[in-house]
Amino acid sequence: MIDKFRQVGSFKCLFPRGDRQDLDAVLLNTAGGVTGGDRFRLNVEAKSGTSLTLTTQACERAYKAKPSQTGKVRSQIKVRTGARVNWLPQETLLFNGSALDRRLVIDLEAKSHVLMVEPLVFGRPAMGEILNAIRLRDRIEIWQEKKVTFLDAISFSGNLHEHLDRPNIAQGAGAMALVVFASDMAEGQLSPICDMLPDTGGASLLQKNLLTVRLLAKNGYYLRQSLLPVLRQLNNNTLPRCWML
Hints:
By secondary structure, the protein is mostly beta strands.
């Protein structure tokens, strides 16, 4: 049941009909992407005992921006006691010349759960695109009972292709993903997740209730091959239908 709902501008939210009691919400940017000067903001609250899955209709695109402009995306998710939120957006595709500044803050109360993924694809190699001039700031915070338990931040400006090509950075990877599972079930998922990861992936149990997974891949296609089994494992063998189209 939706208590309060408001949307403005090109940032929309759709609610597909289904046979499950849990609520699914699909985020849609009718502008087609994010470019310099854009401002997008999302505020979500899952009340006690509820379950919400948030995804995107398709890949988000970060387009070329003017040197003085940056596209900003701010997302804040509150998960009340005993609730669960699955934050499962599809890939963000970075174009050469893009300037993107994102921040995701997830605030968990006691006995709540969150599964989140943030996949990034670096350009379109099939189109001969090389990311030799981008600006990227990406920050993810997870708070549990008013304490920061996870913080991940990227800040880069310049030739990303050259940076990722270094052996000690990404050895030429064209895509990556971060998965975080904050739940009292996290510890039991470490072993099965490790068994399914490729050589370019790794999983860590940062706390008894906080599991993180990182993946690198040659491109978006190979990233999905590694990522989808992980998400299914952590989400009761289900994925939003948008991921399968």
